From TrEMBL:
Taxon lineage: Bacteria, Bacillati, Actinomycetota, Actinomycetes, Kitasatosporales
Protein name as annotated: LysR family transcriptional regulator
One of the Pfam families matching this protein, by short name: HTH_1
Organism: Streptomyces cavernicola
Gene3D superfamilies: Periplasmic binding protein-like II, Winged helix-like DNA-binding domain superfamily/Winged helix DNA-binding domain
Presence of keyword Electron transport: no
Length: 307
């Protein structure tokens, strides 16, 4: 069979069987009787069956017509179930957003983004999974998150990425640390040789630092302490544990208040892009698209010259 019957013609056949009249069935569908008659004739040609006996007393289904009408009713019921299910999925999609974000982005930026979206969509449920940049792609590929945010130097492979903000890493120490009394910038080799409070492997902050040191030919940093969040690293430095390389976003208030002091490193610039990521081939719609729009709008407003 070259073509499947269209649903409107099947619906017309069912109505003819119920009403015993082509004109009555046509009226229920808002069709002119000649158009309805033509539809039934085309349906009969497609199926290769005589479905309706047309007489002066009305239109009656043949035995084949009654069989096809019974199957057509089941097709209509399945189609109604499909449409109802699709509507339920749309409603759920439009009422729920699952986000996965790396630690620094989650701590410093996501609350503001989500706050703006919730002001526009107060009924929206937003679930946030906070992890490191290495694990965000896994959550997206498994379908456990609709939209992710990472801070790794390179966009994850196999995902669509879009820059939403800029950041840079700073070397910071507590007041009184010997590095605060230096007259010259710290050398890259000195930084690599010093025990540092570091983020864990797999985090975007650690990956950015490791890549910069490898590029400079000085190897990997020396861990004094490895911690799982920017807040933990910040607190350790304030407590005098040691120096750290950390996102400027995480310590901006501490630098302004003098709780932490920046240390310049000669020849080392640790700027990075913060990206939204999602599954390739999937079009962002509903709340995910709305949140992406919020992040891009706020990112351009906050750092217009760094895009």
């Amino acid at each position: 069979m070259s073509q499947l019957p269209d649903l409107e013609s099947l619906r017309l056949l069912v109505l003819v069987g119920d009403a015993g009249s082509l004109s009555s069935a046509a009226a229920q569908l808002g069709l002119a009787q000649p158009s309805a008659s033509k539809r039934l004739s085309m349906l009969e040609r497609k199926l290769g069956l005589v479905l309706v006996d047309r007489t002066r007393r009305g239109s009656q289904l043949t035995d084949a017509g009654r069989a096809v009408a019974g199957w057509a009713q089941r097709v209509q019921q399945e189609m109604e179930g499909l449409l109802t299910g699709a509507e339920a999925l749309r409603t759920k999609r439009d009422a729920e957003l699952r986000v996965a974000a790396s630690m620094t982005v989650a701590e410093c930026l996501v609350p503001g983004w989500i706050g703006e979206l919730r002001r526009a969509r107060p009924e929206l449920y937003i679930g946030l999974q906070v992890t490191n940049s290495e694990h965000v792609p896994e959550l997206l590929r498994s379908g456990m998150a609709d939209l992710g945010f990472v801070e790794s130097p390179l966009a994850p492979t196999g995902l669509t990425a879009c820059q939403v903000a800029c950041d840079r890493l700073l070397v910071v120490v507590a007041p009184g640390h010997p590095w605060t009394r230096r007259r010259r910038p710290l050398g890259i080799a000195e930084l690599a040789a010093a025990p540092l409070v570091l983020r864990e492997r797999g985090s975007g902050t650690r990956e950015t630092l490791d890549q910069a040191l490898r590029k400079a030919g000085v190897g990997e940093p020396l861990p004094l302490l490895e911690l799982g969040s920017a807040t933990a690293v910040r607190n350790a430095v304030i407590a005098g544990t040691g120096p750290a390389v950390i996102s400027e976003l995480a310590v901006r208030a501490d630098l302004a208040d003098g709780r932490l002091l920046p240390v310049e490193v000669e020849g080392m610039e640790l700027r990075r892009a913060l990206r939204a990521v999602w599954a390739t081939g999937r079009t962002l719609v509903g709340p995910a698209a709305e949140l992406l729009a919020v992040t891009r709008r706020r990112g351009k407003k906050e750092r217009p010259g760094e895009w």
